[in-house]
Amino acid sequence: MPAERRPNRGPSAAAGNRAALVAAARQVFAANGYDAPLSMVAREAGVGQGSLYRHFPDRISLALAVFEDSVSELEALAAVPGTTLDDVLALITEQTIASTAFITMVSVPARPDPRIIELRDRVAKVLEERLGEARRAGLVRADLTSDDLVLAVGMLAGVLSKVPASERVDKAERLWVLIRGGIDARPGDGPILRQI
Residue 90 sits in which domain range? Predict the structure, then answer.
């Protein structure tokens, strides 16, 4: 149920309105995806659309405020000694189960905004650091790249966005079984597709 619209308290309400908008956007994006109407976010936050656009002039600005925490959480995990690629992929999967919108935003090249590219590059850097260790340990294909992993997570998000939230954990586990078949190291690894 949307929050009741608050009375306009002018500039003194700015910080509270911004926090309410970010919290509402997190919920709306999780439930309805990245392309959910921004009017839904304003209603959920209990503010007018004018307030939304004063704080966030476009969808990307709002999404960046929402998903900055997700990227920071990934970076913090990756900084912990002993963190593996599997640990990072597990956290990304948890974040994707909670909200497919984040992965949609960073993995879809049709949105070439430099702010999204910077966020995507931060995720790719975390993946690349752990991927290098996994390659050296012989755990993944030698030709696997961080872009491949972003693509795999994007496919995961695409599927999870189409199933009810109650089924996402089971579906994510099954998808990773299938995806891991293509990324894990195996004797005689070669191109996945036959040469034609």
Answer: 59-183
